[in-house]
Amino acid sequence: RPDLARQQRTQQKETKRNKVMSCPEPLLLFLFLSHFFLSANAFTFIIPNTLPATRPLLNIMFMSDSNANDSESMEAIRSLVDFHDGSWKGRATSFSVTADTAAGIVNKKVLPNYKTSIKLGLGENGMTMTETFDFNDKISSRSVPLIKSNMDIDSVDGSYSLDISLPDIPSDVVGTEKLSQFGVEHCIAVNDDARVRCLALYGVEGALSRVVVMHEERIECGIKSAAESTQEDLLAMSGDIDRIVDKIAGQIETKGDHTSSVAKDASEEQERLDRLKQAMQASPDEEEATLTLYPMSLLDLSSGVWLGDSIVRDCKNVAASPYDTGYGFSAKRTSITSTQDRRDFANWEMGVQKNAWRWIWKLGDSIRQEDEVGKAMGSPMAAELAQSLSGILCVNESLSRRIPRDGRMVYIDWDNGAYVGFVLGPVSIQLPRYLTFDSSSTKKVKPFFTEFCVYQSASAGMNEGDEMTDSEMNEETIRLPELCCSKIARVYNFEGKLKQGCTSFFTLRRL
Q1: What is the pLDDT of residues 10-52, one digit of tens each?
Q2: 293 contact partners, CB below 8 Å, separation of at least 6
Q3: Residue 196, SS3?
Q4: Is the pLDDT of residue 476 over 50?
Q5: Are 333 and 325 in contact (CB under 8 A)?
Q6: Residues 132-182: pLDDT tens digits?
Q7: pLDDT at 285 over 70
């Protein structure tokens, strides 16, 4: 009986095979192609019924990617779209430095006004940011894929940083027509309608060739004026950091009496808002204090200790060094090779760390930075961002009365030429002088990390660029402004891959 059943199954298979082989060739081709397309694009027919109409492009991208259920990716993309998508106008200041520190700042140029528009959508390389520049009727555009550019996004306010190979940026904005092989871009959201960007471009020899600082305002902005934020914005930022801490610690409660918790949170927020208003206002009769861009000097930077919190986004799949090991003494940590496609956007581990940052300058040519880290929750901040540096002042215009405050430059040579630092108006920059990426070298190289800071004041009495007269400078009228700093930083590994992104918010405690 088993032999009889086996023979019957064999006869059935042969009968089916003969029927298929007897079909015409066009019909076989049609059946094969229909099966292929239906199996490859089955999700296409489901999208119109399952995706919300407000974010179709974002949802399609993440449904077709491996990070379909990654809420952090969606949150980061949405913050990027909500803030940056639209039209902007601004001014750019560009300059260069050479290996000769005695030469100082060279080829400084100012582009008085230009326009740019940002559009985010799907391209050949996934989600892409397309920027179109308009300067004196000269139109040029560039496309930046979010994944291939190692983009780091702070989902709190939309601030971002990225890197570009062979950056295609208009020469009018950059201030030179020299070819660049690598560029790093930082962007900090000042408020709902203003942002500040920094471009660091490295030439074909691997040396820092050009630095560009761009102040931009949104066209057809909202209620708030450019470069101004109220204390409500500061409170909202503090609340966002608290929520991130709760998310990391796993202390967000999803069950219980929702009505009572909402009422309690609202009362606590109102109390904090009242306390913040009292601290930022000397008397009820004075106008409301706002955060405005504040041109910094070395005296302001070194007048106290900068205390704050740092939000860390660590790329767990990227090795920090060739000798970086995983769990166990003999386990070698696996790292994505340079030849593989790095499709790990927003695949980072979050962390929050306390930080105390101090500039030490005693009116001479020597200057120091000291950074002390405190308690951390989640991924800690990279050691490169917490190291102390010693430097020499090459150019110091911070006390010059002939130059407007927003145009005064400070040029610092850090760590015997390994890094350079600049202070230009309300921003400070710290960059490596040379590209130090070398995956084949067994020697220890200098770490490659970048920092970009924007400073603001909470004083109602002084605005950006204001100067005190001699009659006003007495003990009764001088009231030092409350200063704060927003910082965004990037740390790379030995292969030139982004290892960690970090955004920080500091307030100055004067000594």
Answers
A1: 666 566 555 545 555 555 455 444 544 444 443 333 333 333 3
A2: 190, 196, 215, 227, 425, 426, 454, 455, 456, 464
A3: strand
A4: no
A5: yes
A6: 999 888 899 999 988 888 899 998 899 999 999 988 888 888 988 889 999
A7: no
- R_g (Cα) of the chain, nearest Å: 28
Distance CA 511, CA 12 (A): 92
- φ/ψ of 439, rounded to 5, equals -75, -20
Q: Are 235 and 273 in contact (CB under 8 A)?
A: yes
Alpha helices in 286-345 (DSSP H): 298-301
Give the residue with greater pLDDT, 432 vs 341: 432
Q: Is 301 exposed, middle or buried (0-12, 13-18, 19+ CB in 10 A)?
A: buried
Distance CA 92, CA 48 (A): 43
**CA triplet 105, 159, 157: central angle to 5 degrees?**
140
| Residue type at 497 in one-letter notation | K
Which one-letter amino acid corresponds to residue 127? M
- The residue whose two tokens read 């005695």 is 102
CA angle 394, 398, 399 (to 5 degrees): 115
Q: Is 318 left (phi over 0), alpha (psi -120 to 50) or beta?
A: beta
Tokens at 43, concatenated: 């999700």
Residue 381 near residue 373 (C-beta atoms within 8 A): yes
Residues 6+ apart with CB under 8 A from 252: 243, 246
Which sign does the torsion angle of CA 90, 91, 97, 101 carry?
negative
Q: Looking at 327-475, which runs of residues are DSSP E strands?
A: 348-361, 366-378, 389-396, 409-414, 419-424, 427-432, 449-457
Q: Identify the sign of the CA torsion 87, 162, 208, 417.
A: positive
